[in-house]
Amino acid sequence: MRKVLVCLLWVVSFASSAQSYVIEQVKDNVYRFSAGHYHSVFMITDKGAFVTDPINADAAKWLKKAIHSRFGVAIKFMAYSHNHIDHTLGGEFLVDEQTTVVAHRYADEDMRWTKAPVRFADVTFTDSFTAELGQSSVQLSYFGPNNGRGNVSMHFMPANVMFVVDWVVLGRMPYKDLQGYDIHGMIRSTEQLLASHDFDILVGGHAQMGDKGDVRRYLAYLKTLYNSVRDALLAGHTLTQMQQQLHFPEFSHLPMYQQWRAQNIAGVYRTLIEESYFNFRPDVSVKENEH
Ligand SMILES: [Zn+2]
């Protein structure tokens, strides 16, 4: 799949300044926009553009200009993947007069309750939302809590490209100590995504693109990590012992494996204490980091 993807990628523009921005064609009328380690996706139709996370003010200004000048269309929709501010800033610079801004109701609620300095949504939804632009469409789906609040998948048709931010990470280890990760929810959402949607390419908000096989391998890592830490905790091991003893050779080829393996373990350990209260269980002895 990697080889196929390399052929599909077509770098249409590159600007180097303090921050470099890149637009690549993913497939047909769907493109990936990259700002450093952040990605968003947009779709171009003769009825206008559908854009996703603005990422930050500077990136949003650059992308809006690129959509106008290179593709010659107005922005019809801007949809937030979720509430996290490192993906949602700058939305006010990625809208035209006619743009409808869409967010899941829980992402929107978070932005409003926290008084986030973002462009608020015009339209919210609970389960799914579909935007039609001529022969193309984008379906947003919510699978429950997973990472942040109101974090949804976006399915671009007919290109058959999926966009998911933060709860699916392909071609790299999950980030450090899994801040913001609802691991049960990420496993559940990823399983539901695989069961309910066919897609040729998944683009993540970070790291690499991949296909369904890559998503299954990511899911296998999450489950292996979770099960290993849970079993070590049940066996009475401390976090330090787990970090020394737990290795996942079938995933050791993943970028950042050496650097983040111990932090990934700490993230699941923290989840089991904070969310599942392993420190209160009579059958488990938690010897360190109790609270
Ligand atoms: Zn992120």
UniProtKB/TrEMBL annotation:
<keyword id="KW-0732">Signal</keyword>
<feature type="signal peptide">
    <location>
        <begin position="1"/>
        <end position="18"/>
    </location>
</feature>
<dbReference type="InterPro" id="IPR001279">
    <property type="entry name" value="Metallo-B-lactamas"/>
</dbReference>
<protein>
    <submittedName>
        <fullName>Metallo-beta-lactamase</fullName>
    </submittedName>
</protein>
<dbReference type="InterPro" id="IPR036866">
    <property type="entry name" value="RibonucZ/Hydroxyglut_hydro"/>
</dbReference>
<feature type="domain" description="Metallo-beta-lactamase">
    <location>
        <begin position="38"/>
        <end position="206"/>
    </location>
</feature>
